[in-house]
Amino acid sequence: MGVLPLPLPLLLLAAGTQASGLQLDGHLDLGRCRFALGMEDGSIPDSRLSASSAWSDSTAARHGRLGRSDGDGAWCPAGPVFPEEEEFLEVDLGRLHVVTLVGTQGRHAGGHGREFARAYRLRYSRDRHRWLRWRDRWGAEVIGGNEDPEGVVLKDLAPPPVARALRVYPRAPRAMSVCLRLELYGCPWEAGLLSYTAPRGQVMALDPAPVVLNDSTYDGYSVGPLQFGGLGQLADGVLGLDDFVRSRERRLWPGYDYVGWRRPPGPRPHVELEFEFEGLRTFRAMQVHCNNMHTRGVSIFGEVECRFKRSLATAWEPTPATHSLAGAVKDPSARSVTVSLGGRQARFIQCHFFFTGEWMLFSEITFVSGESGGGAITAPCRPPPPMAAPGEPKPGQPVAKADHSHTSILIGCLVAIILLLLGVIFLILWRQYWKKILGKAQRRPSEDELRVQLSVPGDTIVINNATGVGRGPPRYERGRTLLAPPPQLIPPPAAAPLANPAYRLLLATYAQPMGGLARAPPDGAKPINTDGKGGGGGGDGEPRLQAHLAPPSDMTAGAYAEADVTGGSAYAVAGPSPGPAPSPALPAFPRRRLRFREKLGEGQFGEVLLCEVEDPQALPPLSRPPDLPRGRPLLVAVKVLRPDATKNARRDFLQEARTLGRLRDPNIVRLLGVCAGAGPLCIITEYMEHGDLHQFLGGPRGPALR
């Protein structure tokens, strides 16, 4: 039985409905956007195919077409895809497309090939500069691939990306060879929309669970409450249901299909959305699919106001396009509201949607437009200039997407970078070499350069301070700063002579300043002399150095502030007399009795601290001054060796302690003890509260000593 034709009026009604639907409903229909984009039939030329690398020329990117067996049958990368997964096959579509499906196939090659990709990832770009990771509606990136080299596997992309170029990254569970043939399915992106800017969607508190109304597939940037530079659910072709809690897709959270905002406070509350397009376009209308479930406080907008701008540098046109809805819409079903834009030309559109209820929910926004300069509405976008066709790669070399004219530039850049790196390496090695040389030079002067002989009465004190001028008139080093005037010289009640022939001073303790400058004594000054010869003094054999420092009230610890713990100056005893007595054991000083007061100095290997001793009368006789009055606090200088000091520094540190332990003279600082147990190694000596002789002789009153 034949099919009866419809009456003419019914045919006209059906045709009018279809035509009006095509004209007014400009929303993307994903069910009709599933066409092959040209990999298999060759519509996409070889010049738009590239890859990160190729195993050989016969497995180059141009052979990665679905259903084709050219070359060795597929694209095969040069390296393994495990574990880095950075090998990719890139397809340039020439213009913006909506990609809804991906078809993959392995390498069969007439039964000789067995390579295929069990899974893959996608990245896409709308400008070929910024590449975005594709994720499904649940946030997963990995897409299942093939199980054999010959079968074709089609995978839907939900949400479908809007892209000009797409890269496929094969994955493998282990190091293995992978080959790929590819086809993309979708349709051209006729709207020309590049991105939109909108506030973040909010959460509606409902029973039994809150409804999240955010733009979960937005692929742009998110800064604070604003999203910009991307596309999302407002342009994915999915129209929400009447009940916004339900979703068209299964296993999705309530409210997924909508992006919603709550009414803000203030006069004329509204939501601002801004849209950017590929180029200058003529706009006829805007269609907004919105929810109107007023039983839950949701209403469609009551008024919209749109402004236009032709370029990024120009200002918004002063006359907006406005549209108002007459009265409240009582029908709770979701609907598309068409807003006439009057043929305005622009590249940027900014729209304000004004609230009529507590909430406003959108699921899709599309524009009925065409390219400026004539043409039908929703005309295809003007494709960008085609890329120059790259040459085919050599076997085993990466596939280049630029022409060969850039090769010399790349080689020049690489050579410049290599030369720069070599120069940096040379400078580093040169610096280390000189640092090593200078380190050896600054490590420590020799013993002969820093030897001070303390002889018996009748011998001359000879001081050589490493000035490099040989033996001559004695020179004194001035400290960098003197915080107080020099002490007064007063005759001592009973001067103790330096009459021990066993003293030989190899290094100075705290008196060596860092960076001090040697200066000659003033005119008329004479070398310190103990027998009066050559100095124009008495010849009674008594030493001329018969003075000591009176304790001034404001003298500070300048001698310590510039002292190095082991650098440059430390006492040592060589014992010039035959058969010297053995060194006594170093006295142990109780660390628990030390109370920190201030830091006197810091050197290369440690610090010098000023500490107070608790209950000094309870210390052993060797660990306290013999003339310490009862009840008077005892201040000591504590030299602390760093825990990370070298073995040589530790040896010198202990040698200094042994040297000080053998010195017993009222004119020389005494060693009170050593802390060598748990904690840092410490040397405790008497505190020179009036400074040292070295600083005093370098002061303005030093020449008075004759």
Automatic annotation (TrEMBL):
UniProt GO molecular function: ATP binding; protein tyrosine kinase activity
Region (Disordered), start-end ranges: 520-546
Keyword annotations of the record: ATP-binding, Cell membrane, Disulfide bond, Glycoprotein, Membrane, Nucleotide-binding, Receptor, Signal, Transmembrane, Transmembrane helix
Signal peptide as annotated in the record: 1-19
Gene3D superfamilies from the UniProt entry: 2.60.120.1190, Galactose-binding domain-like (2.60.120.260), Phosphorylase Kinase, domain 1 (3.30.200.20)
Pfam families reported for this sequence: DDR1-2_DS-like, F5_F8_type_C, PK_Tyr_Ser-Thr
UniProt KW Nuclease keyword: no
Residue stretches spanning the membrane: 409-430
CDD domains: FA58C
PROSITE patterns for the chain: FA58C_1 (PS01285), FA58C_2 (PS01286), FA58C_3 (PS50022), PROTEIN_KINASE_DOM (PS50011)
Membrane topology reported for the UniProt record: Single-pass type I membrane protein
Compartments, as annotated in UniProt: Cell membrane
Ranges for domain Protein kinase: 594-706
Family matches, as PANTHER family: MULTICOPPER OXIDASE-RELATED, SMOKE ALARM, ISOFORM D
Family per similarity comment: Belongs to the protein kinase superfamily. Tyr protein kinase family. Insulin receptor subfamily.
Name this polypeptide is given: Discoidin domain receptor tyrosine kinase 1
Organism of origin: Accipiter nisus
Lineage, opening ranks: Eukaryota, Metazoa, Chordata, Craniata, Vertebrata
